[in-house]
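Fold it.
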Amino acid sequence: MNNKIPYIRIGTSYYKKVLAPTISGDKIEILISWNIDTIKQDEGRDYIAVIPKYDGFTCIPNHIDYKQIYENFYNTYFPLSNNPHKGNIDNTLSFLQHIFGKQFELGLDYLQLLYIRPIQILPILCLVSKERATGKSTFLKWLKLIFESNMTYLTNDSFSSQFNADWASKLLICIDEVLFHKEELTERIKYLSTTNINKMEAKGKDRIEVDFFGKFILCSNNENNFIQIDDNEIRFWVIKVSRIENEDTELLAKLKVEIPAFLYFLQCRQLSVSQAISRMWFSPQQIRTKALERLVSYYGRKIEIPILETIYELFQEISEDILYLCPKDILVLLEKNRKRISANEIRRILKKWELQPEDNTKSYKGYNYSSGEYYLVDRRGRYYTIKKEFIIEKFETLMQD
């Protein structure tokens, strides 16, 4: 920070660079909007002429060759305060071995890419465990010590808010104790994980389009249903973290000391996945874990069972061996049991059952439910043909699992 001239002008607005104290005892540099009349009162009228002037803000992440100014635009991405140098990183490697387990080398690749290629798209990293004292929170705190103001924490509510100016230009966006029950939140994080453009919006200001390079890290004590994802999803890297047997209350302090040496290690290390296999660098097979499969299985059963039960119950009430149903018909029948499942989810389950709709829209006899009874209605659509014996067999199999 320039002690002689702590002020800058961006466009027509003035700012002061200040060192703000943090709870850890460190200080971080931030910009605070400053009134020109106050500057004149404090420094004198002639001082205004020597204040550096820039055309606007930009945000370009770079940890190896950081630049504050790009073509007269002021870079709002924060430089890292830790300078890499050779040293011991035994505690760091041991801790990362605990976090990533058998995927230790991929974990190092992930961290190395964050550091040397910050604009590279990466998977949504999810650390889950129902146990306590696993190191998930320590991992986030350690990342915060490394990437400093370029990392932020969000809550479930703040992520769902339309206002995102506080995190739209961050490298790491971490959500602890995440629990996304709404499908739109899952779709939002999936979209953001692969896009390079986002709309930034602050209260009282118009939305503006900005470059987006954020990576999401989710932590949860809920292993089975903290988020809704299906079997085709390839953007999530879900790791179950085990309990630390001998908890070290000084671990974070030890990790902090080793940060400069760890950054040096990342600069010199050879990536185990040397070039991008997919847009998220790693292949879907490389980041597919048992924890992900459990999550997918739980979500699949949560959706599949109500659909199966509804169709099974309908067969029990009518004297037919074949039903003709569209997803919207099943949707209506589910509502009687107050089950909220989308038409797309119903289609996904029908596809999983290897059922195919009619090629064209046709007339058929469907069923409705009212006053405790099912009744036939005339409908048109691309219906599915569903046999009673198929549903009974699938119902009995699913109930035995």
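The first strand starts at residue 7 and ends at 10.
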